[in-house]
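Sequence in, structure out.
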Amino acid sequence: MSRTKETPNSSRSLSTTDPELLDADRQLEVEKEDQGKRAHNFVPASMFPKMLGGHFVVLMITFLAAPAWLFGTVYRMREHTHQLHVAVADFDGSSVGTALREATMALSGTMGYPTFDQLDVSEWTPESLAEAVFQGHYWGGMVASEGATDRYDTAIASSAGATAYNSSDAIYYVTMESNYYAIYSEDVLGAMSPAAAEAAALFSQNTVTATISNLSTSNPTLLAQVASVLSSPINPVQVELVPWFVQGTKVLLNTAGMVTPVLSQFFFLMGYHNIMEAVGFRRNWTRTRGLSYQFILSFVWPLFISLDLTVIFEVFKESYPTTGAQFFALWTVNWVMTMILFGIFDIVTCFVPLPLIPPFVLTLVFMHVACGMMPIAATNHFYRVSYFFPALHHWKTMITILTKGGVNNLHYTLPTLAGWLVVAKGMTYVSESERMRRAHAGEGPKH
């Protein structure tokens, strides 16, 4: 039979009364207890009602203020429609042009109608007016075509003239629905179409009625031959400068498209910083290394997530044609916006207490949607504060890119985004410096 040979070391390891081991165990338990207390950051139970009450109040205020910001952009919208300007040009200079001018002057600035600016046609051409609408200087343009009344007079002079007459050549209105299309169909197009119809009605009342009266007595046969012209002398038509917004996904571009960059940066940074805290890299890194790593990440992650955002539009753009230059330009502006949001959330997740971060994110989401949904010109003057926010300039730059140069405000949108980008990088520097300090001092996150 074999025996188990005991050694001094083995007997020592099996002893449960060794004073040295007991001391080491006690020390280990104390250290674990201290670490647990620091990790959980326990507070007295008596603080629970106060903390819960504060959380209750913060959320009540957030869910009141954040939706109110968005709803306020469309509140009494018809009262602000007069702040939009539509150009009116009478290139006809006769009865058709007079009817258009009278109709638009009567409706100008009234409830639910934009202000119709009467242009001096000696300084304008149809092409320059269309360009002004394309560039966003006017929200639309209404035009009485040159020679419109002469063509009408020719049409009622003979049967051949009546056959050749085209009532769509008299009045047309130029539109740019891509310029905040969420309100365009109601506030702009919904005003120009009735104004054009009113002009046609005035022309029939003032001119066609006299024509019918004259021909009924002087030439009844001709009256029958030109009846088609007299029944519909003016048929206003719409000329859309950028017809790409027929696509169905347009309703998501200024809603989900404005929210996704915000959420992508928030979720990434919340997860990333928790992972970094768990593995403890910062405790072993120098401050320079930590800052370098964070700066590289602040460029690389937004670069790839902005590519996702751009590809989503490219995949679901339907029939709208885009060029490679447009794709990369859109990718670039999305990259800049996500880098700005990276810096904002980097500093927010560093210094703002955890219970206040979700209300901040919710408020930012509502503000982003508001910037993409409603133009400043059609809202209360209070919302001019939106010019300070990068979301407004991101949206305006996107529209300029997608419309191949339309509504061009790059002279102030790009500098504003550039300024915010510099501030965002400063935020990253401050927040990462603080995180490195806490790690070296053995402190946990301030949450």
